[in-house]
């Protein structure tokens, strides 16, 4: 019989070291600190993160599966440069799925989850805090929809969409328009209207797609042979 006083349990961190590296690099890409095309060498990443080469290599493999980094024409990898065709496909899939998530959230979320979602879009934050609030909004929306298949399909897509935001907000007026669109989605959800929530999500995704494509096309003109 096990002695109840003998507790050898080891508390395990919520994330492994490679997962933490993935999250840090993903957040830096989304914030525009690591712009598209930025070279990422193993040596630099070891110095920046303070972790082993093995952890960096594992993190790079995962970031490649997420589509956030790609092999560089020179040595190592670079932050992925999404072409307009890829961006169009990403937003087509998002437009097909995200309105369904908004509708399911209305039907399945608790009052507490609705209140938490609405809180995320209040016009108080700016800059990095505003971006973080959007990430958390997306996470809350997926969690409250209670559909594991939709969640597994959209989470990797959201990672790439967040990376595109640093580009799309360079389009004049896009930052303010995006804030209004998120507020419209939250208001429709608070009113418990699945139809309004789905339509507001459609409008937001279409407007976001237009801005992202415009930003990527500008980048392609600046770097036509990259």
UniProtKB/TrEMBL annotation:
<feature type="domain" description="HTH gntR-type">
    <location>
        <begin position="15"/>
        <end position="82"/>
    </location>
</feature>
<keyword id="KW-0805">Transcription regulation</keyword>
<dbReference type="InterPro" id="IPR036390">
    <property type="entry name" value="WH_DNA-bd_sf"/>
</dbReference>
<dbReference type="InterPro" id="IPR008920">
    <property type="entry name" value="TF_FadR/GntR_C"/>
</dbReference>
<protein>
    <submittedName>
        <fullName>GntR family transcriptional regulator</fullName>
    </submittedName>
</protein>
<dbReference type="Pfam" id="PF00392">
    <property type="entry name" value="GntR"/>
</dbReference>
<dbReference type="InterPro" id="IPR011711">
    <property type="entry name" value="GntR_C"/>
</dbReference>
<keyword id="KW-0238">DNA-binding</keyword>
<keyword id="KW-0804">Transcription</keyword>
<dbReference type="Pfam" id="PF07729">
    <property type="entry name" value="FCD"/>
</dbReference>
<dbReference type="InterPro" id="IPR000524">
    <property type="entry name" value="Tscrpt_reg_HTH_GntR"/>
</dbReference>
<dbReference type="GO" id="GO:0003700">
    <property type="term" value="F:DNA-binding transcription factor activity"/>
</dbReference>
<dbReference type="InterPro" id="IPR036388">
    <property type="entry name" value="WH-like_DNA-bd_sf"/>
</dbReference>
<dbReference type="GO" id="GO:0003677">
    <property type="term" value="F:DNA binding"/>
</dbReference>
């Amino acid at each position: 019989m096990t002695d109840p006083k003998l507790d050898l349990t080891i508390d395990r961190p919520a994330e492994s070291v490679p997962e933490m590296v993935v999250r840090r690099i993903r957040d830096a890409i989304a914030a525009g600190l690591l712009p598209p095309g930025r070279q990422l060498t193993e040596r630099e990443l070891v110095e920046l993160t303070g972790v082993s080469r093995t952890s960096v290599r594992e993190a790079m493999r995962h970031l490649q599966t997420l589509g956030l980094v790609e092999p560089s024409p020179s040595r190592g990898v670079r932050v992925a440069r999404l072409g307009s065709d890829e961006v169009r496909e990403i937003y087509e899939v998002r437009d097909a799925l995200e309105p369904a998530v908004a509708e399911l959230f209305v039907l399945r979320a608790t009052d507490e989850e609705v209140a938490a979602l609405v809180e995320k879009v209040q016009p108080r934050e700016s800059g990095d805090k505003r971006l973080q609030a959007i990430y958390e909004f997306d996470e809350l929306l997926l969690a409250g929809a209670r559909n594991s298949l939709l969640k597994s399909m959209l989470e990797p897509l959201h990672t790439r969409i967040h990376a595109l935001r640093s580009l799309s907000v360079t389009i004049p007026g896009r930052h303010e328009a995006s804030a209004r669109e998120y507020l419209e989605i939250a208001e429709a959800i608070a009113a418990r209207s699945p139809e309004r929530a789905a339509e507001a999500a459609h409008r937001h995704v279409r407007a976001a797609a237009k801005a992202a494509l415009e930003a990527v096309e500008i980048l392609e003109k600046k770097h036509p042979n990259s």
